[in-house]
Design goal:
CATH class: Alpha Beta
Structural class: alpha/beta
Order of helices and strands: HEEEHEHEHEEHHEHEH
Strand content: 15-25%
Mean pLDDT: 88
């Protein structure tokens, strides 16, 4: 009885942290809403907290009962360093991983979508590739601007290193002036993200699970 209670509490805790256990040793990680970094967001904002996801992923890497990781993304983006930290952790894992973009994989959600071994996007999902932005005080000095550009270069390099797209092409998508009325960047919907070389394939949950099981079987 006590073990059943502990198991129920563990499942509830996992869901609150953005994780669900599926069949055949597959762990599903949810990346939703806004990626919360070093600053707390308002309580009414849906967030993915990196201090929850990072320990969870590290735990799954060491858990022999976990055969693979399925990442479900529906995010508007958020904190750059927190998003890159999660993406780098997934990229360095030995456990097979597959990502699936549902709804949106915007901004820092792009590195999170490409960090897995294989990526899918549903036909109606949307991804926005744009330059780095700030909503706070920006000191207009050459040093501040250089630091900002280095942060953006980290994103570009990560995307180009983990997807079928060059750094030059990522910059072109970021600097596109023809798609967004009051901003610059590129909006990619479903198949367009595959054609751009960011996502591997158009597909849904069935295709993502099938691919992950294939990757898991190759590891055994």
């Amino acid at each position: 009885m006590e073990q059943q209670k502990e198991s129920t509490l563990q499942r509830q805790s996992d869901r609150e942290c953005g994780s669900t256990i599926l069949a055949e040793g597959i762990r599903m990680i949810h990346i939703i809403g806004q990626i919360e970094g070093h600053t707390l967001l308002p309580p009414q904002t849906k967030t993915t907290k990196y201090e929850h996801i990072i320990p969870l992923l590290a735990e799954q890497e060491q858990d022999d009962r976990v055969s693979g990781i399925l990442m479900i993304l529906n995010t508007v983006g958020g904190d750059v360093e927190a998003g890159l930290a999660i993406a780098e952790l997934v990229r360095s894992m030995k456990k097979p991983s597959v990502s699936l973009v549902l709804g949106g994989g915007h901004s820092i959600g792009v590195p999170l979508a490409v960090c897995s071994d294989y990526s899918f996007i549903v036909p109606t999902a949307c991804m926005t590739v744009h330059p780095l932005r700030t909503s706070g005080l920006f000191i207009t000095s050459p040093q501040s601007f250089d630091y900002y550009m280095k942060m953006q270069e980290r994103i570009i390099c990560f995307i180009s290193a983990n997807a079928r797209i060059s750094a030059k092409e990522v910059r072109q998508l970021m600097e596109n002036k023809n798609q967004m009325a009051d901003d610059i960047g590129t909006v990619l919907i479903g198949k367009q993200a595959v054609q751009a070389g960011i996502i591997d394939e158009v597909g849904g949950i069935s295709e993502a699970l099938t691919k992950l099981k294939q990757l898991c079987s190759k590891k055994t």
